[in-house]
Amino acid sequence: APDTPVIDQAYSKLSNSITVEWRAVPGATNYMLTAQDGDSFVETIVKNSPGTVTGLKPATLYRITVRSISSGGKSQPSPFRKVKTVLAAPILSVHSPSCDSIAVSWKAMHTAAGFSVSLMRSDGLGRMLKQNTTNTSLIFTNLDPGTLYTIKAYAWNANGMPGDDFTYNQRTSPNTPVDVKVAFNSGALRAVVSWMPTEGALTYSVTVSSGLLELRCNTSSASCMVPSLQCGSQYYVSVTAYNDAGSSEPTDAVSLKTIPCAPVNISIEEDEPGHLLVSWSSVSLGHYYVVFVKSDDGLEVHCNTSYTQCHFQSDCGFTYFISVFAYNKAGQSPSGDIFNYTTAPCCPSDFRAAFVSSDTVRVTWAPVRGADLYETRAAGGSGEVLCRDTATACTLSALQCSTPYNITVYSCSEARGSNTSCAPQYVATAPCSPEIKNISKEGLSVISVQWQPNNEEATYVVTARGEAGLWHCTSTRNSCTLKDLPCGSAFSVSAIARSAAGQSLPSYSIPLETAPCCPNDLILTEVTQSLTNISWSVGRGAQTYITTLESAKGQAKCHTLQTYCLLGCITCGTNYTVSLRAISETGLTSSCTYQGYSSSACCPSGVKLYRLSNNGIRVFWRASDETINYNADLHGSKGNFSCTPSSGLSHCDITKIPCGDVYTVVVAPVTDKGPKLTFCPKKIYS
């Protein structure tokens, strides 16, 4: 068997185990650790040092021995060591009695000389608090509300040896919520209570109490809606925060006064004609009252008072709808009963007169309660017009134009007869129609219209209507001027009279025609030396045209239905004035002038050709004017050639002409712009 091992040291760090250290024995493959307590013992096989015996009892003295083991057997036990296991951890009971404190307690332990308890925020913030005590309870104060703390506790023996520790997580109860606000919804009779969220709070409870009545609302958010409140009541609102540690202190009660209830015992009486008295009973929490009186025509008035009665002005023939509301800072009371009160019939109101024509007026009015018949009288002019009907309208015809009338509508009933106190309404008929006397032209697009004035304080409007549009002029006298009328247009001219009473019928229409328009575009094109073609755009309203070219040497004229004309006997090299007259179907004429026209320079005369050599010719001519420059052109099947002499010369040479061809030679004046003249005489050269 192997040698007996020798224990170096043995100690206990946990209450259920002892750790042993020894020197290794040669040849030993295992070691047996034995912890003996009286007649009981615990054995453990380990490979090497150190080794730990577990499953022991706390605060118990054990005899520890070690035996070495090999294939040859077991050694004798080593000399024993006495070791006592440490104390077990205290079992804690923890709670948070307030939002800033945690109370810790435990059961007394045999052989424990004292206890150590430490506390620290679980998130690692802040400092650790530690207390040593021989008691079995203690309290940590000045803690953060609603915060999770980690608590660690252990006991030590008389030798100061610490035992097992016990760890416990405990949250402080939440702080009392702050900034409690109550928003009251007067229409739905409910309140929304809100507050600032409290650190560590999981839920909140809102208590709304009024006498023996108590309403609660639980929520995890920072607001809560309390429904089904009663009108005319005062509630006290408080909020309590909760978490797994407990509850906070409730907040100071916030007073909530609901809206007052609807007033009752409402009475309405007409204490004198034209005055209504509305009274009612006072209601709880009503600071002031508002009475709304709405008539059947939609008009509404109200009265604000802190008393229990209100006076209103009333009109006859109306039905009034009356409602009373009580108010306080919370809002308006619910709607109570709506009462109606009808006053006695009276003269028709809302009198309106509308002209159907200049001699016919339609009168309407608002109906009167209790009236069976209406009588309408129009007095003025040469007599009186009468109308009786059960309807609330009457048409008075055959009235004189531009005449004031007194129109009175009386309400009648079988019981009371005719109400003769109704006041008349003054109505003036529309103006009489004017009569156009004369239309004259004052300019190219200016027309003067004259009429016979037959109304007082009337404004006359003259309208020219045609396909080109509408033109107006206005005057308070007997004439006005229509300006900027378009040319070449036909119009129908009429006049009306206007006044505050209305508008007359239009006068008879007078036809009007404006002079035709001048063509916008006019083009002159030379056809030959003495023949020129003139073309132009269509002039609106024109049927025929007369075009004239005139100079000091003579005149050329053409009258045509077309928009073009050929004018002969034109002198070359002459400046002409160009004019055109556009004539309408009825003979109206517009004279049009355009930019002057210059005919081209005259073609040369006496053109002669001389051969210079086998491949060249000289062209001679006689110029019509020494200031005119000419150009000679030679055209053949083998090519085209040209020459231009120096200023003042009347000949030029063309060389290097292919032989054996027939050429056409033309000498023409040189133009500043436009194409070359092609109508000058031609010479044949072979």
From TrEMBL:
<dbReference type="InterPro" id="IPR003961">
    <property type="entry name" value="FN3_dom"/>
</dbReference>
<feature type="domain" description="Fibronectin type-III">
    <location>
        <begin position="262"/>
        <end position="346"/>
    </location>
</feature>
<feature type="domain" description="Fibronectin type-III">
    <location>
        <begin position="430"/>
        <end position="517"/>
    </location>
</feature>
<dbReference type="Pfam" id="PF00041">
    <property type="entry name" value="fn3"/>
</dbReference>
<protein>
    <submittedName>
        <fullName>FNDC7 protein</fullName>
    </submittedName>
</protein>
<feature type="domain" description="Fibronectin type-III">
    <location>
        <begin position="89"/>
        <end position="175"/>
    </location>
</feature>
<dbReference type="InterPro" id="IPR013783">
    <property type="entry name" value="Ig-like_fold"/>
</dbReference>
<feature type="domain" description="Fibronectin type-III">
    <location>
        <begin position="176"/>
        <end position="261"/>
    </location>
</feature>
<dbReference type="InterPro" id="IPR036116">
    <property type="entry name" value="FN3_sf"/>
</dbReference>
<feature type="domain" description="Fibronectin type-III">
    <location>
        <begin position="1"/>
        <end position="88"/>
    </location>
</feature>
